[in-house]
């Protein structure tokens, strides 16, 4: 395994920790700044919205540049954002830090996924993407519980100082371990040309969006992943109010969920290297069954434990295939489409969280986000089946040039 993948995974670990650890520290943040918890919650929502913007704008703005240098610049931006958050004397400055850190999120994962796939043989590309995303799953399993504990014991700012430190280590790792790269031949980056080549490169990247399959892929990401995240957003309420677990056990149950993410990411990457759409159809269909089953058995503690693990496994089992699919159908211009798909993940997060909240606010109960999530995911499966039928070529044909994956659709 190329050591550069480990450096990329460490970067994704830090970014994932930045995104999710704040959820466990909202009470401390709210008390420190004297704001309501709902106002503190905008540190989460504002981050997610900024990810979508950064995924598109920064990826487009840097598409003509050397990818390794872009990744290093994005990690520097990540460090700066977390330092601002850790040192912020006011709520508004803390929000600024969150926005700065979030801007690098989508572009890092989007460009990083392209770089990761370029470090391995064609038949291992989806697996390489999965290795990079292992950092994100590890952030949920290990980083969030320990980051929350550190923030509760030493002040929430200590957690963000620690995250900035992780960013420094990732910066050194990427500089040392990721080989010098340029974009695909003909893209115009890194060749020293300065007369029109840059415009051709950006135009090539934007041209990927002429593919209906790229748009199908983005829609599938929003729906298939958003349904799972909608169920997860309110899982603490389900576990305590429906299943009857004590609130003190919730962090450990979330570790179990995170373990499912790790397993699903690994299995999903291996399966996607064989068949991207085949993996998605099977995993998304299984996820719908698990979500519906979870809604039925949420009153049983043993059954809930099993369902929680399976929800994490199947929910994140889609990620390598979802990311690989959009890169494949983008052809020779995968960078901007890859970044857009990271934005689609976060758009799905927002959609699922909003829809689940509507279910609760209208009196449907704390299992309603699970049922609503199953419905959203079912729509994603329908879109996937339509996309698969509409595809006019197989994956090997699409990837005959610099391939992003080699498995049949």
TrEMBL record:
Pfam family, any one: MFS_1
Keyword line: Cell membrane, Membrane, Transmembrane, Transmembrane helix
Subcellular location: Cell membrane
A cellular component annotation (GO) from this entry: plasma membrane
InterPro entries: MFS (IPR011701), MFS_dom (IPR020846), MFS_Efflux_Transporters (IPR050189), MFS_trans_sf (IPR036259)
Transmembrane segments: 42-63, 70-93, 99-121, 128-146, 158-178, 214-237, 249-267, 279-297, 303-322, 343-364, 370-387
Domain of life: Bacteria
GO molecular function: transmembrane transporter activity
Bilayer disposition of the protein: Multi-pass membrane protein
Domain named Major facilitator superfamily (MFS) profile: residues: 4-392
Descriptive protein name: MFS transporter
Organism: Nocardioides cavernaquae
